[in-house]
Write a structure and sequence with these properties.
By secondary structure, the protein is an all-alpha fold. It has a single domain, classed as Na+/H+ antiporter like fold (Up-down Bundle). It has 16 helices and no strands. Helix 3 runs parallel beside helix 11, helix 9 packs antiparallel against helix 10 and helix 10 packs antiparallel against helix 11. 46% of the residues are buried. The C terminus is likely disordered.
Length: 417
Amino acid sequence: MVGNVVEMADNLMRIFAIIIFLGIVLTRVSKRVNIPDVVLYIAAGIIIGPSVLNIIDFSEFAVINQVILAFGAAYILFDGGREISLKVLNEVKITIGLLATVGVLISAVVTGFFAWQILHIDFIYALLLGAVIASTDPSVLVPLFKNMNISPKLKQTIISESAFNDAAGAIITFAIVGIAAGGSFSVGGSLLDLLKTAGGGVLVGTIVGYIANKLVCEGKFGVCRGFTAEMAIAAVLGAYVISEAIGVSGFMAAFTVGMVCGNKQIFKLKAAEDSHEIHEKFKDVTISIIRMMIFTLLGVQMNFEIISQYWGASLLVILAFVFLARPISVLLTVPFDRKAKWNIREITYLCWTRETGVIPAALAGMLITMNIPNAELISAVTSMAIIITLTFQASTAKYFAKVLKLEIQPENKVRSK
């Protein structure tokens, strides 16, 4: 037994060494060829995984894979939360609320309709497919948009939507699973679940974030001053675990911890300047490694046989998803927010921004574990949606912003907190 544990540990360390080394090389390559690094990570994962070279097989490390996915997404959301100005967020709260709830539902229904017509599966499972891929991906959008020279209003809407719509996507997904299993659907019950899940996560994140920041800030309660980076990880883990234990959104809690950290002045917290630079460097390195791990392992675990079997029909579904479902969901929600004063160029940009990634991949994996009918097909379409949206939408985000004349001068950017 001890021998098996040691062997598994050695194998895991070998896998991590390969992934991190590949990630470093591919990050440099991505800057030269102007392709998002996550696309190259996924491609590398497919090549070194069981589908091609079989250098890495992560199937025996299911628990560790879930830890990487959960903590990775939570920590990236924490970083995204730090980029959010509550003053700006207040201006677009209606847009975010509509996009992250009604928009997700519209996207799921429209995509489900086309999946039903194209894949010829029962409508309930086609709708389930639409729900799985309906949410956007913070692990791509946060690093991409935090460094883009677009207006704080547009940037923070995109980042915040990616945090808030995960809860809606998961709730809709499991509501449909319940219906497929013979249960019933209640609009009121689902809305209550959404409010409880998202609102509870915000509450937990606010409390944990405030306490954690109080302990590392200036003042008599700053007994942990100098450990800002370490406290951030503890706060993200603590907020996530507490939230999941009481049945609310751990991802929302992690995002809110970041918002508290990024808006210290509102909470009357004075940062200890000596630890800020250390925290920034640590955070950037940590997120870099997390992204390498998440997306390379995503590629390793893709079922290439299923993808190759359904690629044609899946491609049609994804085209409908990108060019119809997302624009319809934006056009039926965003214009109703009069306070935000969106112009046609900004709305057009929101229609194009809908990269798919970690959360849909995790939901698809859960469906396979639960032995849901058509789960393998749903996983194949999800995998293709991730590859296609990251390759074409993420890689063209800066160019499209330039074409639509949405770029602003760097000096007008909101300062990172």
